[in-house]
Each structure stands twice: as structure tokens, then as C-alpha cells.
Amino acid sequence: MIDVSNLTIGYKDTTVVKNLDFKLNKGEFIALIGANGAGKSTLINTLIGINTPLSGKISWELKSTKKNMFNDVGFSPQSQLIDWYTNVLDNVIQGPLLAGYDLRTAQKYAKEALQLLDLYSLKDKAVDHISGGQQQRVQIAREIARKPKLYILDEPTTGLDVETSENLFKYLKKEVEKGALVLTSSHDLTLLEDYATQVLFINDHAQKYFGSLNNFLNDSTSLREKYLKERGK
Ligand SMILES: Nc1ncnc2c1ncn2[C@@H]1O[C@H](COP(=O)(O)OP(=O)(O)OP(=O)(O)O)[C@@H](O)[C@H]1O
């Protein structure tokens, strides 16, 4: 679905990661890991087209049946992207409506997403009257309700309680089993270890590993242990 070759990312005067090379295919759950400042958000924003690559190539092939290929993408950035002037339900329903679903279908998908993220009882609340974690859930619910083929999620579990994070990742795993692709960054290595199939690890301006989670773990007992070993801690 996404083919990246010899990609260097960063900003005008700063190279963040050099020579990235990986292929992301449907049916995979990719954990994007790296320390604060390693370049996870920069990579995500470059893949999605918000940032321009410094050099190299990104090819997309979504085989989307929708009018616009991006209707098949669920993207949740690290910074909150919320319509502050509406309530919880209106925020969530915008996802499927903008993805091209008719009102009835959008209502159905929004309701399911609100239930998954345990937001249904808050559906009529103004978004500036709910907690930060609940606002994060609204943002994720809106993307889930789009029923995308490709999920690109930048630290989706930040601010989510343990149960909601588990429910979200369980849902994403089911989507992956049905053929979706999930790319998610997170610092919750325990959660990632339970659900990811692949690891993309960036460190010291380079791609240190891309491949299966099991191979990455090698002789380490956990993703956390392996990560700390690689970071020399
Ligand atoms: N708009 C920008 N202009 C210049 N440099 C930036 C910009 N945004 C981020 N950076 C720098 O790029 C590097 C990578 O930042 P990025 O946000 O991608 O890291 P990250 O891995 O997502 O970190 P975190 O885990 O803290 O979210 C950092 O050194 C950061 O200071």
C-alpha cells in the first residue's frame, strides 16, 4: 500500500531521518517507535502529505473504490484536530460524511464508533466541556467511523485510559485481519507488543529496523527490553 524508498525527512534546516526504506502492506499492524524527537510525527506527516520530503520517494496504492483516495484514510495527528464549535456526535459524524457516506450510514458508523470509544453517553456534550482524554477519544472515533482501509495514527492512546486503549487496539487488530493497514506511533510498548505485527524503529536519524515484531524481539523477552537495549540504556 505504501512504498517508501531512500526517503529523507525533516525541515528546511534540519534533517530528521535519512534514507528510510520500507514497504507497508495491507493486513499489517505497524508499530512506529522511537524516542521523543526521533521523527515519528515528521514521518507520519510526510507520508500523509503535510510535510514535503527532503528527498526520496513515497508511492501509494490504495485500490480505493471511493471518489477520493483519501476517503479511505483514517488519520489522527498528534495535535488535536477538533471542531470546537460543535458537540461530540457532530464531530464524529463529520468523519464518515466527509468520507462520502450518506447521512443514514454516517449516523450508523458514528454511533458504533462512539460506543467503541465509550463516548455514547457524552454524544450531546459540547467538546470544550469534556476532558482532554475524552477529546482525544472524539478525534479517534471520527477516524474509526470513516471505516478506512488505511489508518495512520500518531500516538492515539495518549490520554486514553487503559481499557479504552485496549478496546481501540482490539478493534484495529480486527480491521487488520479484514485487510486494513494500521500504522501507529506510540510510547506504550507493552500495548504495541500485544497487537503489532511489524516494527518500524527510528533512532539517531536513521531507520534502525523494519520487519516483523518477532524478529525484532529476537532473544529479548519484551519489546520494552529490546527497545532499551537498542537505545543503549
Ligand atoms: N516544524 C518544525 N520545524 C523544525 N523542526 C521541527 C519541527 N517539528 C519538529 N521538529 C524537530 O524534528 C525532530 C523530530 O520531531 P518529531 O515531532 O517528528 O518527533 P517524534 O518522534 O514524533 O517525538 P515525540 O515522541 O516527542 O512525539 C525534533 O528534533 C523536533 O524538534
Automatic annotation (TrEMBL):
Residues 2-229 form the ABC transporter domain. Keywords: ATP-binding, Nucleotide-binding, Transport. InterPro entries: AAA+_ATPase, ABC_transporter-like_ATP-bd, ABC_transporter-like_CS, Metal_Ion_Import_ABC, P-loop_NTPase. SUPFAM superfamilies: P-loop containing nucleoside triphosphate hydrolases. The keyword tRNA processing does not apply. Belongs to the ABC transporter superfamily. This is ABC transporter, ATP-binding protein. The lineage of its organism: Bacteria, Bacillati, Bacillota, Bacilli, Lactobacillales.
